[in-house]
Amino acid sequence: MNKPIACAALGAAFLSACNLSEVAVTTETALAGIEEHGIAPAGLEVTYDEGSDAITVDDGTTATVLPRDAFMDGDRFRAYYQDNSFAFYAPAASGEAFAALALVYGGTVDAAVYGRTAETALPGTGTASYSGEYASMLVNDADGDPFRLIYGQADLAADFGDGTISGVISNRADFSNPDISFADVTLSEAALSNGRFSGGVSGGSGNGIIVTTASDGTYQGMIVGPNGEEVVGGVIIPHLYGPDEVTEYGAFIGD
User: Fold this and answer.
1) What angle do CA 166, 169, 174 make, to 5 degrees?
2) Domains along the chain?
3) If we measure between CA atoms, which residue out of 247, 250, 243 comes closest to residue 12?
4) Strand partners, 90
5) What pLDDT, on the 0 to 100 scale, is given for residue 207?
6) What is the pTM of this model?
């Protein structure tokens, strides 16, 4: 059975400029309560096939099928790979939400997508803490080559009375080389609007063997789960790696 993960409506020019506006997308098969968002090129469609355990990334011109590659799995994110193109997909524990990355070699697709498949009853007061996993890749802006996989821990805190959320992404390390680490990323306080949020990020520079200088970026996401007990979202951070401009595309999921 094919599940549409996400379509998206942000152009590539906005990606490189790190100007992320949350865009809701309704799929043709949408049921009441389905809501999907993306940091992604316009016209993108990402589909997960349960039968083959594969992900298809379709930019409207080319459909790229990425088979399962468990070697690159994180704790929550499942990895998919073919010919230097990647996808990472994490379903929420409730089964009612997801976060994902899709990166096709050559720069045709660099995207973080997330969404929910059921209604969420949001608390009107009180606070909540969320902890989970962050997955990202560094992509060379010049040739669209995804060249470093990073996993980390995502921690967010929501205050439903004040209507705010903030957080940090820590323990950021290169998947293939533990001697390559990356600084924490601070998710600045952002307003909650019907469970959705969008704000700025700072930090994230690479150190050790690979040294990058990160500029301020942005993040966005939503509170999900039957009673708001889960969170999903995406992150984008521009870096300088020597003379090269690279962009970090990330996704997070927590409960």
Assistant:
1) 165
2) 2-254 (2.40.160.90)
3) 247
4) 99
5) 87
6) 0.86
